[in-house]
Structure formats: C-alpha cells, structure tokens
Amino acid sequence: MSVATLPWWAAVPVAVLLVIGGLITLVGTLGLLRLKTFYQRIHGPAIAISLGAGCILVASMVYFTAAQSRLVVHELLIGAFLLMTAPVVAMLLMRAALYRDLRARRAAGLDDNGGDCGERESTPGLSDEGIPLGQPAAGQLHAEADEQRADAAGGGGR
To answer: Phi first, then psi: what are they for 110, rounded to 5°?
Structure first.
C-alpha cells in the first residue's frame, strides 16, 4: 500500500501527528539554542524527546497499522524505552554538571552556600570569576555577570 492509497481516516491523523511531533521537537531545539545555562538547556531536549518522539511514534503506528491491515505495536516498545531512559539520562547529565561545578567552586575556595572561604565577598550562584554556574567556558565574563556584580557593588546607577 502506498501513501496515495492510504485511507483518509489514517492519513489525516498521521499528518497531524507528524506535524505536531516535528513542531514540539523544533521548540525543544530552539530551547537548547536560546537558554543560557546548561541546567536550563537540558529541559528543552528532555521534553522534546518525550513528547515529540511520542507523536511521531504514534503516527508511525497508525500508518503501518492501516498499511498492513493489522495492529503494529513495535513503536510501543520504542516509546517505552524512550520514556524510561530520557529522564534518567537528563538527571545523570545534570548531576554530573552539578558535581563538576561544585568541584570547581571548592577548588576556587568557595564554600557550598556560595560564600567565600576567604575575605572576598561573592554573589550566590556565581563562581569565583563571576560566571553563572553551569557555563562551560570558565574564565570568560559575560555581560549579565558583570551587571550582577555591578548591582551587588552598588554601581547599578539607581
């Protein structure tokens, strides 16, 4: 059975599910590009994998069930595997990044609460160089971090 001979009751849901799945995956990709820190970036793909791939898998089930005139459930196994592994992988990536950041903070002389072990004053949520935690490029100051330090020092112009 070709796409041209697929019944309309199967073609319409397949098309709608494929478009919805593609849009959800696109939104997850845009979230990956747009968000600033690693901890924010991890949520977009984790949601997109679950919802976007789920819509695409259901569309595949409907298409092959109509095309072969029998129930096709291979996609259920793929969907179950994705639903079980995607949150676990996201959690493990976040824990690894948190561990990396905590090690970097301890090496820089900061305590676990964001305070400095020495005499310098630090801003919670920022590393020793003033970089928001979770940024991969250590040592590069961003405009946002500079503004936060200026506000903390009273130079915000208010």
So the answer is: -95, 145
Residues 108-149 have pLDDT tens digits of 887 656 555 544 444 555 555 555 555 544 444 455 555 566
Question: What does the chain come to in residues?
Answer: 158
116 φ/ψ angles, rounded to the nearest 5 degrees:
-90, 140
Range with lowest mean pLDDT among 17-21, 98-102, 117-121, 148-152: 117-121
The DSSP output letter for 72 is -
Q: CA-CA distance, 107 to 117, in Å (whole number)?
A: 11
Determine the Cα–Cα distance for residues 125 and 116; give it in Å rounded to an integer.
12
CA distance 93 to 25: 20
Q: What is the largest CA-CA distance in the chain?
A: 76
3-class DSSP state for residue 126?
Answer: strand
The pTM is what?
0.61
pLDDT computed for residue 122 by the predictor: 46
Q: Residue 78 contacts by C-beta under 8 Å, 6 or more apart in sequence?
A: 57
CB 134 within 8 A of CB 104: no
